[in-house]
Every structure is written in structure tokens, then in C-alpha cells.
């Protein structure tokens, strides 16, 4: 027998015998734990799994309690509802209907909010319902309602704690197991994708608005059932137990127990209920006075728990019990999912006409046109920031064009939701991998089958979807095997290397049975053999000879270790060919994202007054390198800056000592003026006692006259080139010895790029050392003194920039057939 079922069975058996061995006080305590756990379980689903923070669940408890209290105690009910007062079981039914209706209305308004507005919205309606309970005379005002009859079950009157105990815990266990079943299903995968994967889920056909509403209503129904049980256990209700402070307490229970874990609701409810009781008993004896000392101690203890166990206590407890969740099995006998009819080879299936997308003053796509025919592979190429991913977003419904038209299978789709377009037969991957790292490879890929199933929430909760689930998992396993990840089928997706994660995304997209695939940089981060395997997969005629794809390639294939240039520095040799005094040296720098190694044993040197550039394809680790040097990311290895070793690089200290970073996305403060953004760049120098920022500001304006013209303009209204100038100018306000520039030409027009690189050369003339990360290899090699080629997190080549510009491999991979002799920005 499975060990997890043995443990669960032992827990249920323990619940059955506890009333016989415990004193009535402790049975009552267990009753309250069960009632609280029922509410916390709804919050696990809503907050921990779905990512929707709610402080108002106590109000839904009140709805359940007051509905049954009114219907059970009112002597003469109107005829249309009089039937409900006959039995508490009928009042439960009415309470669930009322609560579901209120939840749908409230959710329709609240769930449109995001960020901090969502929890504030739940606080607002939670307070409103609380005061409603205390204000209406028909609900007894703040005095409440008494005389609520006990529940009767099979002729037994549940009028004592030890009698209603079994009913309370029966409700809890049914809720636990149905919630587990729900999460282990097609609907459950859609719900789990809400937290961190909504764009991806929509692209796979998931109606995320519906999924959010589903978990909101389920959480409300759990709270309603708890309120119904509470009212008939207490035989009395008033507004006090349904206030905002109790709503906060319910959320604490879910978070402390483990907000992402079903059994964490029981742990959190039990721990907080018992601790509160103990503290109320013990503290007055220790301190010799009554008061709210238990709230203070309780708060401190909760903060400590949250610091030490951020995922809650259940994952910690789970490690103490050697129980593993059963591995999903693939049923080879399951029926194969039906396939869609594919267009005939050569038929036009996608057409973009004059597609334009503007973001304020920035034009990302300008009158773009393309046509894709069935059975062909169309490549969309260009440098970083050219608008390729933006175009993919317009085609797939993730974004809406400012103007223009997109036709898919002859129908206009511009402005439609991405899930509607996915249903028509378009699927995609993303430039930045979008997956759910704690779910297995199989579960991640199975999200792609969402539109090919139809069983709903009820079927999933009560295990009526097993035949369909077997077919969906069989299809997911087939696609995993097809892309070569069969050996990782049951591994967590977050444990895969970056290249494998990209392959996983392709398998997920294939699961939707598309007639058109949009592959956004599918080869970024892949090694040579992996890229060759990907190419074979895309060209493979088997299974779907007329399936088309639009792909956004990354770069030419990477070099394997055996192909690396002989100039690659050996261990500890930090480029002895440099003649200037080193401002920056890094040795064996490594950065990992979980089990994915993004940077591996990278070493480089920047000399005083030099421009050193790092070139490489997307996903090579260039931005990661700069972030690690700056101390934004944790890393291993050594960083030497300005003659001293930074054992643990810290941003504040490095800025104070003369290092500054201009990030890839500029990171400006859009609601502040240009001049305020610039002055903020001198903040650290001002703290150190330097008051020279007016003079520095004039120097920046001399370098960027356009910024002086726009000094009072909001930074968010600037064009792309002006934003880049402002980002560089803000960094220069700190008077850096070393300036690190991450993709300064990103998304800029050629004339602006020429101006930016002219300024880079001017900064070198003024004595600023520069580390330049750039995908515009031609411009970077022309302006730089020394260059490195970064491939899949490793330094593949390095040498003087002019020498690398003549290297055939660099020319082939980055410069094109014309090499460095083609027109480049003048410096």
C-alpha cells in the first residue's frame, strides 16, 4: 500500500479516537481548529496556489452563520423561503447559494484589481459586510441572534462538542481530499498557473479570469460551511467573530502552515489556535497582569517563523516523514486525443498587414508586414530591441496593435484574447522562459493540452475526470519523448538547464496540436548539439507535415569547448596582455538560478581608461555577469575592483567606490522629471559629504544637450534614445571610475545608436573605464579596445577588439559576411 495513504489513514484514525481520550476542553479546541482549518484551506487555494491575497474571508464565514441563524430562528418566514427553516441542512444549502452569489458579485469587482489594490479591495468589502451584520436590526445588531437549534443527523442531536466534532472534521477531510483532487487535474493545472504564469496560461488557452473566479467562490463556500457549523455549535452569533482582525488571522494560519500546501491549512490552524490559548493562560501568570501581551509575543513568534520557514511549516514537517507523493503513471492503453484538421501545404494561414505598436513615444513595430504559409518555416531576425517579441505578442494576442491588421486562418484576430487565438490553432513559446518551476516537466507540458479537455471543477474534485486525464497525460508524455526529455519527465521543471527548459516550452506548445507555432528565440542558451537537435525537430516531417512555424532565431551555433579560441585564459591567468592598470578583474565568477548555471568560471579584466566589450547571443549570460559584478545577484568567485577584493559585492559600497551600472531596461523613475532622475544619481556622493552635484549636472548637460532641453519633462514621456541618454547621465552623476553599460543600443534607431557610441568613446577620452555588454557586435568591436565572446555562460574567445573583428568565426556568427568592413556607427 502507498505510504502516503498509510499516513493519511493513520491521521483519520487518530481523529476518530481523540474524543474518547481527551477532556471536553480539548475536544472543543479541536472543534475550533477544524472550523478555522476549513477557512484556511480556502485561503491555501486562493492565496497560496492562486496568488490572490484576501483579508475578507471572515465576512464569508459570517454570511454562512447569519443565513442559518436567521432562517432557523425566525418564526414566520415568507412563503417562498419558509421551506428552508425546516432543517439546518436546508439552511446550509441556502447559505451556500447566497454566499456563492455574493462571491460572484464581489469577485467580479475585486478580481479585476491587481497588486496591492486587490488585498485593499478585500479589506473594503470585508469591513462592509462586518458592519452590515452589526447594523441591521433584523440580524440582531451587535447583540446578535440567540436560540439557534442544533444540527440533527440520522436522529442524533449534535448538541455537544464531542458530538458535533465528527461532523466538523468530516467537512474538513472532504474539503482536503476534494481540493487535492482538484489540484491534480486539468483545472488544477490551470489554477496553479495563476501564480506567476498567467500570460503563458492564456497563450495555452486557459481562461484565467474564470479560474480566478472559481477559486474565489470555492474559498468563499469553504468559509460559509465553517460559519454554518460555527453557528450551530455555538447556538448564538454576533458580528465579533467576523471582523477584519479575524480575517487577518485566517490568512496567518494559511501562510504559517504553508500557503501552497493543502495540509498546511491544518498545521497553521492548529498551531495558531493552540498558541493563542497557551499564551492567554501563561503570560498573565508570568507578568502578573492581564492585557494583550499574548498578541505581542504571538506577533514576534510569527515573524520569526516567517523568516525561518518562508514556505510555511508544512514543508519542514514533511521532511521528517519519509512520504513521497506517488509518481504519475502514463496509461499506454488510454485513447489518443483527436487531432485538428491542418491547412493544405502552401495555404496562407497568417498574415500581418501594416502592424504598428507604439508605447508612448516609442515605436516598437512600424508598419510591419509578413505572411506565413502552411508547411513553411519563416524566420524573423534582428538585434535586441528590434521589436521581434513585440511583434510575436501582436500576432498571438498577448498584446494589441496600435494600428494594422492580423489575419489568422482568414479571420481577423487583432484585439482578441490570446486564449481565443490558441483555440483557433496558434501556439507559442516565449523569449524569457515561462514555466512553473515547482511542477514536474510532465505537469508543465500537460498545461498545453488544456483546450483538448473539457472536464470541469466538479468532475475533477470528485475524480470523475480520470479517463480524460489519462488521455491528456499520454499526449504530454508523447511530446516530451518527441523533444528528447523523457528522462526528465518527473523532474521539477525548475531543476532543468536553461536549454532543456526551452525544449520543454516547445513540447508544451506542441501539446495544443497547433497548425502554427511561434517560437521566440528557441535556441537562446542552447549548446551546439542542442541547437542541431532543435533544428532537426523543427524540420522533421513526421506527424504534421503541414504544420508551420514562425521562429525568432537567436544566433549562429555556439562553439563547443574543443572549438574555443586558444586565447581563452587558463585558470588564474587574467589576461596578461593588458598593459593598463586594471580597474576591474573578475576570476572564476559563477552564477546559478537554482540548478541552472547561467555563468560558469567567467574571468575578464578591464584596464584603466579602456573600453572592454562582452558580446554574445541572447541567453549567453551577459546581463547576469554585470548583475553579479555589481552585487545585484549572488555569485561565487572573486571580484577585484580598484585594487581591492570584493568578497561579497554590495551595490551601495561599489557605487560609493566608483562603480556604476546602466541596466538593460534603463530603470528610470517615470513620474519624476529628467533633472530629478539625474540628481538622484548623485545620492550616494551626497551622503558621503560631496556637494558637487550642480557642477556634475552641468557636465552631464554638456554631454547630453537634449537632456537639458527636457530637464523639466517627466522621464516616462521621453523617447527611447532620450531614456538611454538619461540612464547614462544618471550613472555619470555618481562620478564613476568604471561604468558598466548593458545593451545601450537596445531598441534604438541607427542614428541614435551612432550618437550613443560616440558618447561612449567620449567617456573613455575623459578617463572613464567602460565595460560594455552589447549585442550589436559590429558597433561594439569598433569602439572597444578589448573584447570577450560569451557563449552559454562561458568565455569562448577573447582578444583585442580589432583582432576579433577579423576572426572568421566572429564574422560568421555576429558580423555577417561583410565583417567589420561594413558600415558601422562612427565614433
Distance between the termini: 74 Å
Q: How many helices?
A: 31
Task: Please give the order of strands in the largest beta sheet.
Answer: 18-19-20-15-21-22
Structural class: alpha/beta
What characteristic shape results from the CA principal axes?
Answer: globular
- What is the strand tally? 22
The mean pLDDT is: 86
Uncertain ranges: 555-579, 817-827
Query: Percent of residues in beta strands?
Result: 5-15%
- The Cα radius of gyration reads 31 Å
Percent range for helical residues?
Answer: 40-55%
Describe the largest sheet: 6 strands, mixed
Explain how this protein is built.
The protein has 827 residues and is α/β, with parallel strands linked by helices. The strands form six sheets. A six-stranded mixed beta sheet has the order 18-19-20-15-21-22, with helices on both faces. A four-stranded antiparallel beta sheet has the order 6-5-8-9, covered by helices on one side. Strands 7-12-11-10 form a four-stranded parallel beta sheet, with helices on both faces. The radius of gyration is 31 Å and the shape is globular.
